[in-house]
Structures are given as structure tokens and as C-alpha cells.
Amino acid sequence: MTEPAITWLDRVIDKAFQEKISDIHLEFVDEDPYRLLVRVRRAGDLIEWPGIEGVHARAVVSRIKSLADVGSGSVNKSEEGRYVHRAGAGGLDPNLTPAQYDTEVARLRRFDLRLVVLPTIRGEKYVLRLPSISRTPRLNEIGFSESNLLNLRKLFGYANGLVLFAGPVGAGKTTSMYSALDYLGGPTKAVYSVEDPVERALADVDQIEVKEGAGNTFPSILRSLRRSDLQVLMIGEIRDEETAQSAVEISIAGARVISSLHANDSVAAVEALITLSGAKPQQVMQSLRGVVSQRLVKRVHRQCGGRGCEQCRMTGVDGRVPIHEVLTITPEFSAYLTQGATRYQLQQLARKQGMQTLRQDAERRLTAGETTPRYVTEALGIE
């Protein structure tokens, strides 16, 4: 008979995929009895799900640690790993023997879930990040306004250069970058990505995964790629000086480069890139073609008008929709920046040159009845 803890965890993860959950939070409370509390992130909110108690709670934790190879003892420091899940495993007959279970589960589609383990004062916290199982959307399917899509295509029309995607964690940057790779790449081009971790497999892209423990870091991979025959490169995230310098130098050398970093808006992203790279502003502006800043705002469930119904589980919400701001780096913008203009002055210039801000793009969603002022404030804060 399959261990109840295995069946329970498989069913939780299967349900999370079905309900488009982005993260599963499991909190192990090391008391008598043991408890495993469950919360999931749906459309930006954490929602409580039924947990599990007793020896089964401890068994779930042991299974996660074993499969993710993060150590079997008490957690004294934060750790990262990967948990392998087979889609549909929760629907297997629980009366299968362990050997039969292993045989059946091996036939199912594999998904790698990113795992973070954190020690807390109550016990151990496990956060599982679920990859998207939907196909990569085309650039024109992401939700850009017509003017933003036109501006983005212009940025990608250059023979070389760097385009940044900016925003907080969970803003949809990776999905946008994958769509950009699809737009820029193809079987006739040498396309690479460097990711930590690889979120989903892409056709016609040589995807390289960062493995810090093995010395396969962003900087080391990028040093090798500089000498390779590449045309399009995606760097999952710019985190440090060497990665920022590599992004700038590879784009100046002739490749189209896309990457992401955390910034509140497009102008702030330009300043962050300059600070991170340690390079002269003139060199950075020579490489940078533009910045796409984005957020996700909750979408009103049309069937109930946001009032809540069984179909939307009484939330009134039907997923989220993106809002964007696309900054094009013009000669005038570059000159302003290198002459020491303030962030406010740069933002005013960008708007004068036609950039639609995140808040202005949110108005498009409001006018269409897709979202509400409260949801926009949740995503962007108070002006």
C-alpha cells in the first residue's frame, strides 16, 4: 500500500496545478501532535488549505527532504532544492505497493518544483514554487496594449542590444522573457538562456541551469558564452556586478540580450543596472535599448461581476492580468541621464516621449471592466 503521506502530498500538488497555484507554503509545527499547515498563493493571495497532522505530517516532511536532497535532520539554516512531482500521481490507486507506485508514477509527466526550506521559531517552513504548465504565449498574447506591443517590437528590431524586464517577484517577468525568446529566436538562430532554475523547457533554445554548488554560476557561464557563437541570450536575472557587466558587454558585442531585475519602474531599472554594473553610464546606455516594467493585477470574474460565486470559489477573482510600461532609450534620454538628471526629470522626459506609465496602462484595464481601483492599488500602491 502506498504510504498515506505520499498520496496526500501528490494530491495537494495535483490540485495546485489544476487551480493555477503559483506557490505552496507548508509549515511544519513540531509540537504534540505534529501539524503541517498549508497555504497556497492564488492570484496573488495566500489561501488556507486543509493540512495534515500526526505521524503523516512528519512523513510528508521526510519525503520532501529526501526527494529534494536537503538533508534529513532538523533545519538550522535556509536551504534550497528541487522537488520532483509527477502530474496525476495523486490519482493513482493508494492500494498500490511501493514498487507498483514507482512503476506507475514513472510513466507520468515530470515537473521540477523549486523548494526553499526556512527555519522559523515555530518549526520548519517549506515553500514550493510551481512551474507553469501552459504553453509559452506569443508576444502578442501576453496582454500588451497595441502601443506598448509596437514599442517592444521596435526594441527587438535592433541587431543587438539589451532589453530589461523589471518588476517585483511574481510579476510575470519570466513568462514575458520566454515569449520574447520565442519572438527573437527560432531554429535558424543560436539562442541560449542562463536560468536559476530553468522554469520550463523551450524549443530551439539551449537552456543552461545555474548550479552554485558545482561552480556553474551566472558569471562563469556568461564568461564562456562570451566566446561562443550566440545571437540571442536570456539571462534569468541580473543579481551582481559581474552578471550586469556581462549583459552589457555581450549586447554591445553584437548579441540581442534580454534579462530581468527587481525595480519599481522602468527609470529605476536603468539606474539599478548602472549601479549594479559599476560601468560608466555612457557604456550602459550604449547597450540598453529599453525597459519593460510590469505588474499583475487581479481580474474580476465576469460571470459574477466580482461578487463571488462557486465558479470563482467566492473570491470574485479570475486570475490576474498584466499591466506594462515600455521605456525606449532615446539619444535625448541617454544625454539627460549622463548629464545627471534626476529620476523625476527622466520620468517626465520618458512620458513626454510617449511612454505610458504602469498606472496609465492600468486605466486601460479599468475602462474595460477587467479590474477594480482596489486591485490596482494593491498592485501599484498609493500614488
How would you describe the overall organization of this protein?
- By secondary structure, the protein is of the alpha/beta class.
- The chain folds into two domains: 4-129, 2-Layer Sandwich (Beta-Lactamase); 139-380, Rossmann fold.
- Helices cover 35% and strands 26% of the residues.
- The protein contains 13 helices and 13 strands.
- The protein has helices spanning 4-18, 54-68, 98-105, 146-155, 173-184, 218-225, 241-252, 266-277, 281-287, 331-338, 343-352, 358-367, 373-380, and strands at 23-29, 35-42, 45-53, 79-86, 110-119, 123-129, 161-166, 191-195, 206-209, 232-235, 256-261, 288-300, 317-328.
- A seven-stranded mixed β-sheet has the order 9-8-10-11-7-12-13, sandwiched between helices.
